[in-house]
Amino acid sequence: MTGKLDSLASLTIDQVQGGLRAKQFSATELARAALDFAEAENPKTNAYLQFASERALAAAAKVDAKLAAGEDAGALAGVPLAIKDVILTRNVRTTCGSRLLERYVPPYDATAVARIEQAGGVILGKTNCDEFAMGSSNENSAYGPVRNPVALDRVPGGSSGGSAAAVAQGTAVVALGSDTGGSIRQPASFCGVVGVTPTYGRVSRYGLVAFASSLDHIGPFGRTVADAARLLQVIAGRDEMDSTSAFAPVPDYLAQLEGNVRGVKVGLPRQYFEGATGETADLVMRGVELLRKLGCEVREIDLATTKYAIACYYIIATAEASSNLARYDGVRYTLRAPSETLSDMYRSTRGAGFGAECKRRIMLGTYVLSAGYYDAYYLKAQKVRALIAEDFQKAFTAVDAIVTPVSPFPAFKLGEKIDDPMEMYLSDIYTITGDLAGIPCMSVPCGKTAAGLPVGMQILTKHFDESGMFRLADAFEKAGGFSG
Amino acid sequence: MKITEQEVRYVADLANLKMSDDEIRRMSRDLDEILTHIDTLNELDVSNVQPMAQVLYDAEETATLRADTERATLGNEAALANAPLAGAGYYKVPKVIER
Known about the structure:
The complex is a heterodimer of chains A (484) and B (99).
Chain A: H1 13-21, H2 27-45, E1 48-51, H3 53-68, E2 80-84, H4 111-118, E3 122-127, H5 161-169, E4 174-179, H6 185-191, E5 194-197, E6 217-222, H7 225-235, E7 265-269, H8 270-273, H9 278-293, E8 297-301, H10 309-324, H11 342-353, H12 356-369, H13 375-398, E9 401-405, H14 421-426, H15 429-437, E10 441-448, E11 454-460, H16 466-480
Parallel strand pairs in A: 2-3, 2-4, 7-8, 7-9
Antiparallel strand pairs in A: 1-3, 4-6, 5-6, 5-10, 9-11, 10-11
Chain B: H1 5-14, H2 21-38, H3 76-80, E1 86-87, E2 90-91
Antiparallel strand pairs in B: 1-2
């Protein structure tokens, strides 16, 4: 083993592949070192819920065998990575951060997981998250919160807090998360890494445990834009196991990087900057200045329906969640509370298994779908969603990309907001609109507050224009020196 | 008040969620706050708007249909592996029908 692995915590995909090609280390050596490092570091952050050593070493051995035979070992050959624990991994426990699934061992792999391993990726383990991906701080995990590696007394964001923390801490090169209302971008912003929510349908949801099916996305985390783009390249594309997965061909994202962004039209939605004050807003505005220096044409735009997005989202997301989570009834998924009758079994199992946030969302979703309320809530929300999506479509006739803050504030202290669910919901305002419209969006680091807390800048583009989004983010990252 | 404790108990019944009296009280407060915020949607006239029932669909109507050919399924044992209680190839639940 050479000195190359001393910098395990800052490796990029390119460096892993360069090291393998130059025979500085084998995939097996790297996997062992990465597992040792991740297991030793984990008590600090609680980012991983489960390590998959056997599976990781088997995947690494396959890569080594292919390399020895002179075969192509894949775009992610030997890359140590982590998977959010709401994404199924065959024979590796998948809890969704819930007591209900404490002993659940999936019988199949998610399509994204299968594609990662086909490309030579080495899955180290499963990362902590808010229960069933419901939350913005990772404090709703039944297995304890994740601590932000940048400031251990603070939250990493949520719900994909474990994946963001692992990449920030360096215990994974890249990671998969899921995003329904900001669950990739907000933790990416809080932990100072890149997080990408692709176009709805760009990545198959097969094997992603369903929260709100019309809003759920799988997406990548990386320490650089290029690494996130490389991971997306592997998992993107049509999958017949998910009828909502898109047919559109997947372009070569890397070929789009390092491009010139001169003349790119960037829109700043007035409604996203009105209430934005303090260090977060300053850092995002400094980011906008940098885009201007790079030659982007910046203009103000209107997204007038923004103020209705939270209400719209919390109807649609909870309605879909109440239906999706109905399956945890004590019959099929490991946990069953002691009970005499069938009805008591359902009620007791769900009462004991779900945490407070899941119960709140199941209750709200059940309420808005209950007899007599459908038109007033769900149908109305679907119409408002159409208006929000239309607002974005109109905006993209005038601009190529939209830039906004990711969160109104940087990472907050553990316990600081947990008793006020409404305040927590309102803080999702900048991220949920992208999910409602189904457009690609990402968080890219744009600097740190005086206290050293990372802040992310959000970039949104039109449907299937991940390439344009990556090009802008990559140019920004390099010009600002924010990566790594 | 947007929602009463009695309504919360009714919804909990619909959702098959057993909750303590404390949880019901807390839930009533939380739901009330959220439903009050949701009322902001009433400011919008959406009578002429088509609901967004499909996020994005970029292909022919029948493009998602696959050929009707047999394939291997999960198998009984794998499908039941996570059951809290199984027997004779089935999920077992408390007795539903009385003789």
